Amino acid sequence: MLFASGARFLALAGIALLAFGAVLSRGGELARQPSASAAPAAAAPRESQPQAQSTLAVRPIRAANARATISLYEHTVRQSTLRGHGCDAAKRGVGGIVILDFGQPAYNGHTYGTYLFSGRFAGNKAITRAMLAYAVGYRHCLPRGSKLSISLARGTSNYHPQVPSPYQAGRRWARETRKLETLLEARGLAAHVTSAAADDVEPAWDRSFHRTRDFFRGYRDAEPGNVLYNFGSLDGGVGSIWNASQIFFVSSGMKYVAAIPEIYNHAMAQQWAELAHIAKHRYHRPLKFAGVMTTHTSGNHAMKPRDAHKVLVHALAATVGRDAVGAVPATLTNIRSAY
Q: Is 3 helix (H, G, I), strand (E, B) or coil?
């Protein structure tokens, strides 16, 4: 923005999302790497055409009562640090979706991983251990009897992947996402933390679309059963850089994918509403929103999470129709630097 513990979130039936404070299971711009009206879509390559997938089932909740989780741009994979981050999240008393963004895809000559926001390389296995530490800290600091839970997403981006094969990077990202789920179940943590993946997808970072497409296809082909959240932007909207088919593929069209769009201003909300209109009328399928992301701090005066949700809902109502108002669950997350 609880399913039975141990069940996959994305099965053949598709994606299911419960109320805020429950989780999506199975399935910006602070200290991040550099960031960056609908136009007619050009013919897309065959592999980027939308694929059949079921719709997102949503239990309506009151946006006015929603609170935002804190997602983080991570500078380290030190387990003690991540355990503390998890404990802090539990003490805030908020459930929902938490994205830990570990930076751009990278390869050190031996293993796939990422370049963290500190500039250091972190291997995939070290990232998995760090996420498990976050989950342990979260569970340890929950009050006894708490029903809170989070979907903990292993985040990266499509910012100039420094890898020999984006496809293989995607496959390995999926495998480690599934591995974390197995570890959570083995440690008895799955009732409060489930495993997901996430990708900050921005067209300006991969104008050809090819590397982004290959990463997503690699993730899909690994068949992890875990949701892959697109928490990116549209950089000018449909047709500005990517055509409609390409954008839809990485936002809802591909199996396992759901969108948590960056809504930092009214223009970004309108761009996503236009994409939802295209999805409805061209592909006859809804855009699968899992929530909304913001980057508000006391110093930047950016849009607050509830305001971002309201702006997106209004844009959808005006562009797609009143029947689209319930398409965006009030699952809110605000991303900031871990330091």
A: coil
